[in-house]
Amino acid sequence: MLYVSRFVSDRDRDPELWATIWQAKAPPTLNLIGAYNLGGDERVFIWEGETTADLQFMDSFNDVGRLDTSPAFDRTVGWKHAFAANIAEFEVNMRSRSLRTEEQIQAGLDLRRRGMSALTPQAARRRAREWAAEQEAADMDD
Question: What is the pLDDT of residue 13?
């Protein structure tokens, strides 16, 4: 399972952090993918874990700061298509995941097309609100 942990600590306590982590010895099932300093007192860790021991190791960060961990679901492909405004490839990706009905796929594509055709960010947001109202009305009819 992929996780993202956001860690906030007083940088004056870094020696305690390092000693704690080195003492704890990460389990072999914990795979650290990335560790990023965000500036100030914040860090982000991207990691994979399979066992309770992995979560318990990461929880040891709480001894010297505050660690918030959430499971993460990789949606990079969809976001890349959004950044590139590539609706055709986005549709292929949606269909390949087989998680949605045809009606849901068409509604999702409609939302994105409305955003793409809007002339301003404000118009795009207005179209999104209109789309959401239409979806809600359709749900009430069902």
Answer: 92
Structure-block tokens of residue 111:
């939302």
Strands (DSSP E) along 1-142, which ranges? 2-8, 31-39, 42-48, 66-71
Task: Count the neighbouring beta carbons within 10 Å of the beta carbon of residue 139.
Answer: 8
Specify the 3-state DSSP secondary structure of 49.
coil
| Rounded Cα gap, residues 26 and 19, in angstroms | 13
Nearest to residue 49, comparing CAs of 33, 36, 64? 33
Tell whether the model's pLDDT for residue 98 goes beyond 80: no
Residue whose structure tokens are 């993460």: 72
Distance of CA 94 to the CA centre of its chain: 17
Residue-range domains of the chain with CATH: 2-71 (3.30.70.260), 76-141 (no CATH)
User: Contact 107/135 with Cβ under 8 angstroms?
Assistant: yes
How far apart, in whole angstroms, are the C-alpha atoms of residue 142 and residue 135?
11
Question: Could you tell me the pLDDT band of residue 128, with boundaries at 50, 70 and 90?
Answer: very high
Question: 124: buried, middle or exposed (CB in 10 Å: 19+, 13-18, 0-12)?
Answer: middle
